[in-house]
Design goal:
This protein is α/β, with parallel strands linked by helices and 319 residues long. 45% of the residues lie in helices and 15% in strands. Strands 1-2-10-7-8-9 form a six-stranded mixed β-sheet, sandwiched between helices. The chain has a four-stranded parallel β-sheet with strand order 5-4-3-6, sandwiched between helices. The radius of gyration is 18 Å and the shape is globular.
């Protein structure tokens, strides 16, 4: 059964120890040019250099290595548009167990190729949440595999929270921290860890305007589920989870929405100034800082770049 309670700082510290033999400590990079554009001191946490090319490996690895031997032997299953599926496949391989990944039609081909290379069994479904969940349930019933939900899983959130532990060790004088938000596993885990260490830290999340259910939910005071995502940010199309939304609210995470045009422009800046391949979902954080630069002016800001799995034949600025 998927666990959906929010992680404690103790669980996040345990996750850091559990994944240490497998996950990378990713670097923090700086750019004078981007600092000048933002009017702030930006510290980019490069999770695009994590195993599998995305932060998702942390949560998947923690979930896989949290399983008892008997559970692990039956394998794991998830649904994913790409990065979480790839991460779970890689994590399962570190333990020598089978991974099943349910993928929606229309997912980025480069991400599907990576999942297959990592050794997972792919199961295709229609591109909607109900179809994903139904296929996962079918695979579970047939194989006995344990579900590792992409974001509504305590073990996954705890693994993602290890980013904040690392970042605040690498850049201890931060005034603010920003992550993208989709389903909310990263934002919830990072917020929990960050405020456990630094209760005064200002927390932000960046969300595509075409998939702004988290922003709408915080404004409405309840989870808004009627949003139909329409954005180039394929990694941020999931609706925010209930427990994840609770974490955003409890830790006073301020969600900034950005247009696809703003995000693609920020992606180009990251490629040209940091000399890094980052995917479009990652660029929402820089887009948010540039859009509301007055709120970040003069601050030392931790900026989580979440992934670098890009289909080079389908770049968002190409015709």
């Amino acid at each position: 059964m998927t666990t959906t309670t929010l992680p404690t700082i103790g669980q996040i510290r345990d996750a850091a120890a559990r994944i240490a033999p497998h996950a990378r400590i990713t670097p923090v990079l700086r750019s004078e040019a981007l600092d000048a554009l933002a009017g702030a001191e930006l510290h980019f946490k490069c999770e695009n250099l994590q195993r599998g090319g995305a932060f998702k490996f942390r949560g998947a690895c923690n979930a896989v290595w949290s399983l008892a031997d008997g559970e692990a032997a039956r394998g794991v299953v998830t649904h994913s548009s790409g990065n979480h599926g790839n991460a779970l496949a890689l994590a399962a391989a570190t333990r020598g167990i089978q991974a099943h990944v349910v993928v929606p039609e229309g997912a980025v081909q480069a991400k599907l190729d990576a999942i297959a290379r990592a050794g997972a069994t792919l199961h295709r479904c229609a591109p909607n949440q109900a179809a994903r969940e139904a296929m996962c349930a079918e695979v579970q019933a047939r194989t006995g595999a344990t579900l590792v939900h992409p974001y509504a899983d305590t073990r996954v959130m705890a693994g993602q929270g290890t980013i904040a532990l690392e970042l605040l060790h690498q850049a201890p004088a931060l005034d603010a921290l920003i992550t993208p938000v989709g389903g909310g596993g990263l934002a919830a885990g990072v917020a929990t860890a960050a405020h456990a260490l630094r209760p005064d830290l200002a927390l932000f999340a960046a969300e595509p305007a075409g998939a702004d259910d988290a922003a709408r939910s915080l404004e409405a005071g309840r989870r808004v589920t009627g949003v139909v995502p329409e954005t180039v940010c394929d990694g941020l199309r999931a609706l925010v989870g209930e427990s994840n939304l609770d974490a955003l609210r409890a830790h006073r995470v301020d969600v900034i929405t950005v247009s696809d045009e703003e995000t693609v422009a920020a992606m180009r800046l990251l490629w040209s100034e940091l000399k890094l391949v980052v995917e479009v979902s990652s660029a929402t954080v820089l887009a948010a800082i540039l859009k509301q630069s007055r709120r970040f002016a003069g601050r030392r800001v931790g900026v989580v770049l979440t992934g670098g799995n890009v289909d080079l034949d389908a770049l968002p600025w190409r015709d």
